[in-house]
Amino acid sequence: MISQSALSVIRETLPVVGASIGEITPIFYRRMFTARPDLERDLFNRGNQAQGEQQKALAGAIAAYATLLVSDDAPNIDAMMSRISNKHASLGITEDQYAIVYEHLFAAIAEVLGDAATPEVVDAWSEVYWDMADALIRAENSLYSRFEVAPGDVWRQLVVTSRTQESPTTISLELAREDGAALPEARPGQYLSIQVTLPDGAQQIRQYSLTCASNRASWSVTIKAEPGRADFGVPAGEVSNFIHDNIFENDTLRCSLPYGDLVVEESEDPLLLVSAGIGCTPIIGALNHLVQAEATRPVTVLHADQSMASHAHRREMAELVKQLPGAQMHHWYEQLGSRAVTETIHEGFIDLGEVSVNPNAQVYLCGPPPFMNAVRRGLAGLDVPADNVHFEVFGPDTWTAAAEPVPA
């Protein structure tokens, strides 16, 4: 519990710290990686670091948490905390690592704020940090306990039993235990962390959604090779391209236990599953689960992609929808080529006005942030409550989508 005196200081200094946090976090990471280069090499995503995305994520999380503490009308950040704790659990984060972050973060705060970082200010923000850290540690320990493992003991060696080309840039891998024993139970919409050793010795980690995990004999993930955009300063995906070039049948991968909170809950409510590009992967996982459970609830699937050729799992998605009674599916493609528009295949960007959306539907949404913001605006215009909309962000989340109103 944060003291009232600390809350008063936070309320007074939040504008200053909030304005400086974008400057604080790069200094924090530079300090921490200088002292602990192993963390940058083997834990943090080097691609996100190079683009500054991880810094934005940390800044957004701290600002959202502090705002919640001092504002009566602050947004609820339960979703943010759940998403962070699940991500941390999939990485095997342990309690002692929060002290490492604290040391270098508060050194960066002192460097940026200078004389304004009085003992009173530092003590107040320390209370905020440890209040947030304690909440995350409790949540992460609870996630570890679900699998009856010690904190951080999430890594398992799995063998690739099959590799399938799903589109020109995506492959799916089927993973199983080397001894053939049953895998832990995974929930529809969850993901695995996968760690690979790159040519320079770095052990980089990425998360991939489970597309199928219903029988516990094997798990399936789909991985898109990210080519990068040098003209936009976006590096090629280190891990995705390494896996595409090097991982085949009978190879092994170091994988985490399944985590993630974009989980389709059991209900009779209508279900609306919306995705774009590789965001279809948790949706495929949900559809596989619904078919396995012989679900009868109304299901509508909407997917947007660049073209039919680039649409990973296109045939599988269609076949799964056919197995659900009364389910329907619509596609939007930016490029249709010579194909004609039909009642269910549309050209251009997704348009909710072209389909019937039940305002009581539970919505599960995954794709690039601009796509998700556009869909959320459309859903708000159709009177779908914001609490009914659940979404997954691939890569670092700056928390703007979770902590701000629906974009206008």
Automatic annotation (TrEMBL):
Record flagged with keyword Heme: yes
GO MF annotations, alphabetized: 2 iron, 2 sulfur cluster binding; FAD binding; heme binding; metal ion binding; nitric oxide dioxygenase NAD(P)H activity; oxygen binding; oxygen carrier activity
Gene3D superfamilies with a match to the protein in the record: Globins (1.10.490.10), Nucleotide-binding domain of ferredoxin-NADP reductase (FNR) module (3.40.50.80), Translation factors (2.40.30.10)
The entry's keywords: 2Fe-2S, Heme, Iron, Iron-sulfur, Metal-binding, NAD, NADP, Oxygen transport, Transport
Cofactor: heme b
Residue ranges of domain FAD-binding FR-type in the record: 153-265
Record bears the keyword Metal-binding: yes
EC assignment: 1.14.12.17
Domain Globin positions: 1-141
Enzyme class: oxidoreductase
Gene Ontology biological process: cellular response to nitrosative stress; nitric oxide catabolic process
Catalytic function, reaction form: 2 nitric oxide + NADH + 2 O2 = 2 nitrate + NAD(+) + H(+); 2 nitric oxide + NADPH + 2 O2 = 2 nitrate + NADP(+) + H(+)
Similarity comment: Belongs to the globin family. In the C-terminal section; belongs to the flavoprotein pyridine nucleotide cytochrome reductase family.
UniProt name for this protein: nitric oxide dioxygenase
Organism: Brevibacterium koreense
